[in-house]
Design brief:
Elements (H helix, E strand, L loop, with lengths): L7 E3 L10 E3 L16 H6 L5 H11 L9 E11 L2 E8 L11 E8 L2 E8 L10 E6 L5 H9 L5 E4 L15 E7 L3 H13 L5 E8 L8 H10 L3 E7 L9 E3 L4 H8 L5 E7 L1 H11 L5 E6 L14 E6 L4 E6 L4 H7 L17 E6 L2 E3 L4 E3 L4 E4 L3 E3 L3 E3 L2
Parallel strand pairs: 9-10, 9-13, 10-11, 11-12, 13-14, 15-22
Antiparallel strand pairs: 1-2, 3-4, 3-8, 4-7, 5-6, 5-8, 15-16, 17-20, 17-22, 18-19, 18-21
The structure holds flavin-adenine dinucleotide.
Length: 395
């Protein structure tokens, strides 16, 4: 039931008498900083302004001007590692800020369709308001390929609000262990930079896995931080190439490797990020020994249960008046997309809640919790829900 993707779990492994704190799905809903109150003029004009028309004309004057959308201009696009780029973005005034460790949804038009995915913010908040994401290109991946290969300085992307709870407490204390695999380094890089900006007030061990040396992002910066701060211990671990440098090791995550690199885990607060399988292994290996564990996975876990044999059902879309036939064997989000529809979506794994919509009637199956629900007028996450019967959705 403890699923790293839709839940962040903070557990006191070393002191089981201390109750575990479980942050539920709803706790992971986007938690933007409070929005600045709209000006009096804006409030007066709001009922009279058609946002699409405003944006059309405003963007003739400035590419990121918008009545209500968070748009950002790409101000730098640099190679970060093999098949990975860092995009530095200058958002417009609708951006509400973030805390290191959080993520955001990024949307762009790819081949005539709007595509949205989640990316972690890799920098700390800056005075000039610029933010950065680092994107690893996934083979055949729609948005990652677009951002890595086709996006240019001056292009405009749409952003959602920051979300996610894998942030550091203030003040930060104790001993920390960051476990990163592949693009899972991104939120942990933001947290490492945050600690570096505070002159590394805690002991931190960062263990970072990649298939090959060329795939390590931020390698030079991490090494110079490790030289500058003796309290930062850094290990690069290669899974498909031999280790050569003193800070390199080989092998997949294992109890032996963690013991060799970190010693005892008893007083460690562990943050892990990477593919779903990596995060689950990290959780298992540290259970019972680490002081606490919190994780975020970038790929969905295997569903906890199946919804039974796939059938074809009718989904009526209340707002558009359309009815489409979809298979119950795939998520509602994928099924609707396959019908040419483009409902709002983000992380595609139940975390960001962008795809939540009202189910007026019918039964759905939540692939993460394994629960069926038939209560009318309930909110469902399209990306992790499947249809069990004919449905009516507020789309
Ligand atoms: C909270 C969160 C934060 C994230 N932060 C980052 C980040 O900072 N940097 C980053 O590069 N990515 C990050 N991701 C992953 C990112 O959202 C996308 O999933 C990824 O860029 C692939 O999107 P795509 O449109 O290119 O691929 P799609 O077109 O969605 O998928 C194409 C194929 O690739 C597979 N696939 C999808 N995602 C992955 C993946 N991550 N690894 C391996 N195979 C995959 C799919 O199964 C599919 O077969 C994050 C994901 C989440 C949920």
């Amino acid at each position: 039931m403890h699923n790293c993707i839709d839940m962040c779990i903070v557990r006191n492994h070393a002191h089981p008498e201390v109750p575990a704190v479980t942050l539920s799905v709803s706790a992971l809903a986007p938690v933007p900083a409070p929005a600045p109150a709209p000006s009096l003029l804006r409030r007066l004009l709001d009922p009279m302004v058609d946002p699409a028309t405003f944006d059309f004309w405003a963007q003739k004057l400035h590419a990121t001007w918008s009545w209500n959308r968070t748009l950002a201009r790409v101000v730098a696009h640099r190679a970060e590692a093999e098949d990975a780029v860092t995009l530095v973005l200058q958002p417009n005034g609708h951006w509400q800020g973030f805390r290191p460790g959080q993520h955001l949804n990024v949307s762009a038009e790819v081949d005539g369709h709007r595509v949205t995915r989640s990316y972690s913010l890799t920098d700390v908040p800056r005075r000039d308001g610029r933010i950065a994401i680092t994107v690893k290109r996934v083979d055949g991946g729609r948005l990652s390929t677009h951002l890595c290969q086709r996006t240019r300085v001056g292009d405009v992307l749409e952003l959602g609000p920051a979300f996610g709870e894998m942030t550091l407490p203030a003040p930060v204390q104790g001993r920390w262990l960051f476990l990163a695999a592949g693009s899972g380094i991104t939120p942990l890089m933001a947290l490492t930079r945050q600690l570096a900006a505070q002159d590394m007030p805690v002991d931190l061990t960062l263990v970072y896995w990649a298939r090959t040396r060329a795939e390590f992002c931020f390698a030079q910066e991490l090494r110079s931080l490790a030289q500058r701060f003796p309290r930062l211990r850094l290990h690069f671990v290669l899974t498909h190439e031999g280790a050569q440098r003193p800070d390199e090791r080989e092998g997949f995550i294992s109890a032996e490797l963690l013991t060799a690199l970190c010693g005892g885990l008893a007083d460690r607060q562990v943050l892990a990020c990477g593919p779903g399988g990596f995060v689950e292994t990290a959780r298992t290996l540290t259970a019972g020994s680490a002081r606490s564990f919190m994780a975020e996975g970038f790929t969905p876990p295997a569903p906890t249960a199946t919804a039974g044999e796939a059938i074809t059902v009718q989904v009526s879309l209340a707002r558009s008046g359309r009815t489409v036939s979809v298979s119950s064997g795939t998520s509602l989000l994928e099924a609707l997309e396959a019908q040419g529809l483009n409902p709002p979506s983000g992380c595609r794994m139940g975390v960001c809640h962008t795809c939540v919509c009202q189910r007026h009637s019918g039964t759905t199956f939540d692939t993460l919790s394994g629960e069926r629900n038939a209560e009318p007028d309930m909110a469902v996450r399209l990306c992790v829900s499947r249809a069990c019967t004919d449905l009516s959705l507020d789309l």
